[in-house]
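Support request from a user on the community tier.

User writes: "When I paste my structure tokens into the form, the page sometimes reloads and wipes my input. The last time it worked, I copied everything first. Here is what I submitted, just in case something in the input itself triggers the reload:"
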């Protein structure tokens, strides 16, 4: 039924039928190889179809050797396709899989080399050239390749990464802080959670002493971070900025407290809490912070030092605290 209808169709209708056939083969018949081949036929018609690509990923992940079989099948399909743009887009899919789920740099390099034949101006080709130029210290050539890649890039994630690379280049190798900041800001416009761009802007803002903007950047880092350690570090740096530069301990203590809540072993956060409660002369909160620090200390000497400071607070502020 499907095969007879597929032969009569072209373009999007044919892709839809091939995807339906793949679903039947995969879900009802359990034929992974046939489903994969149907999906590759669909992808050859529309290489930009992300849903088809995701389906292929699912099939590849379902069995041992699935990725190898998929790569081999796409390599065979590339040989059968007539036009170079389609060949390049199919090779691009393999490069992205190899760099991602497969974690196979050799496969990525092999298909990237073939892409240079099919589409010498492809953004991934220029990205690769930029890496080579960077390794050789040819900074102007690297900048030119990155700019060319950016002009051809279609995906926001690719454009954001290229803008970050250009920003880092103008931050470190071809110094121009204003241009570097502009590239980082453009990357954030595409991806507000782009940590490399936020980290680049943090460095630039610190150097230029743009402290109000630095507060915004650190706050954005804290919100964007998915790794607890990164978030804690951003919170501590934000707390230190609010405490030391803006002299706003009431705001700083909130950042330190959140960092301490996320990571009870953070000494920087614990130190910040002590300083802020002391600066605000809130002896009860300071005593509580020292008690917590002593209870959660990783080393006996740290616990002893916290208890000694707690004793000093209780001794010097008996009117505010119960006796030790």
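"...and here is what came back when it finally went through:"
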């Amino acid at each position: 039924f499907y095969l007879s209808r597929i032969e009569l169709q072209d373009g999007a209708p044919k892709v839809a039928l091939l995807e339906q056939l793949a679903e039947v083969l995969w879900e009802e018949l359990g034929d992974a190889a046939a489903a994969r081949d149907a999906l590759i036929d669909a992808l050859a018609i529309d290489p930009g179809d992300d849903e088809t690509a995701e389906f292929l990923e699912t099939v590849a992940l379902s069995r041992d050797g699935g990725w190898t079989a998929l790569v081999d099948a796409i390599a065979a399909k590339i040989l059968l396709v007539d036009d170079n743009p389609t060949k390049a887009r199919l090779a691009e899919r393999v490069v992205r899989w190899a760099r991602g789920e497969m974690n196979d740099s050799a496969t990525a390099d092999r298909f990237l080399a073939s892409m240079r034949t099919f589409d010498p101006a492809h953004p991934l080709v220029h990205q690769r050239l930029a890496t080579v130029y960077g390794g050789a210290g040819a900074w102007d050539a690297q900048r030119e390749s990155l700019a060319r890649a950016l002009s051809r890039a279609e995906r926001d994630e690719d454009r954001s990464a290229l803008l970050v690379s250009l920003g880092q280049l103008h931050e470190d190798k071809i110094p121009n802080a204003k241009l570097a900041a502009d590239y980082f800001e453009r990357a954030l416009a595409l991806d507000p959670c782009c940590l490399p761009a936020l980290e680049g802007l943090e460095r630039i803002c610190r150097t230029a002493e743009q402290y109000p903007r630095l507060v915004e950047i650190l706050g954005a880092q804290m919100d964007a971070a998915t790794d607890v350690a990164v978030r804690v570090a951003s919170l501590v740096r934000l707390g230190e900025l609010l405490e030391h530069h803006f002299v706003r301990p009431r705001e700083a203590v909130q950042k330190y407290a959140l960092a301490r809540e996320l990571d009870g072993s953070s000494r920087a956060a614990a130190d910040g809490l002590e300083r802020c409660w002391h600066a605000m002369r809130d002896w009860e909160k300071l005593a509580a912070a020292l008690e917590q620090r002593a209870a959660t200390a990783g080393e006996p000497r740290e616990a002893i030092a916290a208890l000694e400071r707690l004793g000093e607070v209780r001794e010097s502020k008996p009117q505010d605290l119960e006796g030790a």
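Agent notes: The reload is a front-end session timeout and is unrelated to the input. The mean pLDDT is 92. The chain has 18 helices and no strands. Escalated to web team.
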